Structures are given as C-alpha cells and as structure tokens.
Fold this protein.
Amino acid sequence: SYVLTQPPSVSVAPGKTATIACGGDNIRNKRVHWYQQKPGQAPVLVIYYDSDRPSGIPDRFSGSNSGNTASLTISGVEAGDEADYYCQVWDTSTDHQVFGGGTKLTVL
Amino acid sequence: EVQLLASGGGLVQPGGSLRLSCAASGFTFGSFALSWVRQVPGRGLEWVSAISGSGVGPLYADSVKGRFTISRDSSTNTLYLQMNSLRAQDTALYFCAKGGTSSPRYYFDNWGQGTLVTVSS
C-alpha cells in the first residue's frame, strides 16, 4: 500500500516561513491535499490538488508537489497557525484514501 | 453553510455493534461523496470508508472491510456507518467528511465534529 511520510514536528518563529514535507513514491503523479487540525477540532482543508486554496484560507498557505516530495508552505507564520497538519492522497492501486502521519507545527 | 452532525457513538463491548449517523445540510446531498475518517485521541487520521454521491461502489479500509457497512439516504440527507464485530482497536473519534466532488477519490472539503466510539468490556 502507498505510504506518506511526514516529519513528526516542525518549529518556526513568528513571521518566518514554515515548510512541511510529505514524502511518497513518485508523489508527483498524485494529487495531494493538506489539512490543518487544531486541538479538539475537526480537520480543515487548507490546500487541495497540490496547490489550490479553498475560499477563506489565507494566501500565506501554499503547496507544491515534485518528485517524491509534496510540501505545504506557510509564510509569515502566526501563533494561530500552531496545529497538526496532514497530507492526503488517493492510492489508485488499492482504491483507498491515505493520510500521512501528521506534523505538529510549533510556533516559537 | 455546510453542516455535518455526527451521532451514535458510545460505549460498546467487544463483538458488539453500533450504527453511526451523520446528518448533512447546506449542500446538494446527492452531488457529493461522503466518507468516514477516524482518529484515536492523540494519534493521526485514518480513512475508514467512502461512498460516492450516487451511492454506488462503497469503499472500505482493509481494517474494517467485512465488518463495517457505509450507506446514505437521500430522503433524509443522512450518512450511516453500521459497525459490527467491533474490536478494541476500533476505539476512536469518528468524523464524517464531505468530498469535494461526487467521486470519493479526492479531497474532503468539510468535516463534522466527530462522535466517539469506545469498545471496551
């Protein structure tokens, strides 16, 4: 089955740029989606189809996908961005949705 | 405004059954796929099951296939998950999630608040 690998944690100072990686075999051939989950809340879609932003998501959030790594980039990080972030793809070989293990973003 | 209200969780003994419901509103029910995603508190997200907007071709994670059944009722705009032969490993918060298209093979653009299932004797 397809595996998505994320770093368990990323730390960044306020105002700086955070990049969260999502690794997978030839992930460039898949459409990657990203979710933000704050404690006690349901996940929220922040990026879909690699780099599209849903309405209401600030343009500080952006995504890219190349080679074996997709990335979520948050520029001008704010305290309110502190959350867990998950990447997700559809695995065509198994007809299953797959989530990465999640990355905890800490704003220093 | 899209709303997804999950209910039906609770405490059940191993081997028991439970039916989760998710009442949907704020969108054209039959035009979008719906899914169940679960999360053990403090752990990551795990996809459980999905059903297309038309209701055909339900899909299941290997961990629940043969034990769980997903269905949807367009007359009441409700998504269901019938869970049988429950195991301790099924203990989790269960979210219902709306797909961005009628196919279950894409992203989830809205999530409900979740309902907690605890399997324990």
Q: What stands out?
A: Chain B touches chain A through 24 residues (CB under 8 Å). The radius of gyration of chain B is 13 Å. Chain B has a mean pLDDT of 97.
